[in-house]
Amino acid sequence: MSVVQGQRGASTPASDLNALDFLIQRALQGINTAEPVRVTGVSAEGVQPVGFVSVQPLVNLVAGDGKGHQQGTLFRLPYFRAQGGENAVIVDPKPGDIGLAVYAMRDTESVKEKRDGASTNPGSARICNKGDGFFIGGFLNKAPKRYVMVNDDGITLDDGAGGKMELKGGQLVITAPGGIIRNAPTDVQNGEGATSTLNGNLQVNGKISSTGDQTAGGISQMHHTHTGVLPGGGSTGEPQ
């Protein structure tokens, strides 16, 4: 003969109060609030309207016999993106990310479908249901390879491949092992007494214009003189 096991304990039937408490606790277990989940799929990544994720709840359900049972996958949970108006920081979730699924108090299917911010009636009378989940990512994940970090030292942008921009103490340092390419019609540097220093060779495919003097090897381009000046068709010596 099999033994029927459940959630009640030895004291559950001891009094009407215990029995009522048991019923209340069972009813509360049917209310979904939030739980840790793992992303299993992502839709609509990149420069698109915010998409959805599929997630796997990480906390198993436990039966009366004490055995754990994995929960089913939840589909079409809108995920969080830091955005204000048409301005956004796009860091879409990836499969394997760990985050938090939070469940709305009312049916949100109409809100998800319309996506226009207008008030709408709920599609059903359900409350705190896992079908009305939203995903907030960034919990319990591993160290990133690419990141933007803002701390008391300053701001760091790292591409994970050796490229880095660091703005610290009012100084901007750019590290680019693959080189720097600038596509712009003009490049203006302003600043009182501004000076640009190049430690290396310079190749210019075009004209060079200057409103001031240019010096090469200590010799002024505008004010140098020549030696060995000869009449007729002779050539001068080098400038000095």
How would you describe this protein?
The chain has 240 residues and is mostly beta strands. It folds into 3 domains: 1-30, no CATH class; 32-137, Gp5 N-terminal domain (OB fold (Dihydrolipoamide Acetyltransferase, E2P), Beta Barrel), CATH 2.40.50.230; 143-178, no CATH class. The chain is 8% helix and 28% strand. The chain has 2 helices and 15 strands. The protein has a 5-stranded antiparallel beta sheet, with no helix packed on it. A 4-stranded antiparallel beta sheet has the order 10-11-12-13, with no helix packed on it. Strands 3-4 form a two-stranded antiparallel sheet. The longest helix is centred in the N-terminal third of the chain and has 13 residues, at 16-28.
Classify the helix fraction into a percent range: under 10%
- The CATH superfamily of the largest domain bears the name Gp5 N-terminal domain
Summed up, the domain count is 3
User: What would you call the shape?
Assistant: rod-shaped
SSE string: HEEEEEEEEHEEEEEEE
The main pleated sheet reads as: 5 strands, antiparallel
Query: What is the spatial order of strands in the main beta sheet?
Result: 5-2-1-8-9
Q: Which stretches are poorly predicted, pLDDT < 50 over at least 5 residues?
A: none
CATH fold label of the largest domain: OB fold (Dihydrolipoamide Acetyltransferase, E2P)
Radius of gyration: 34 Å
Q: Structural class, from helix and strand content?
A: mainly beta
Distance between the termini: 113 Å
Mean pLDDT: 88
Strand content: 25-35%
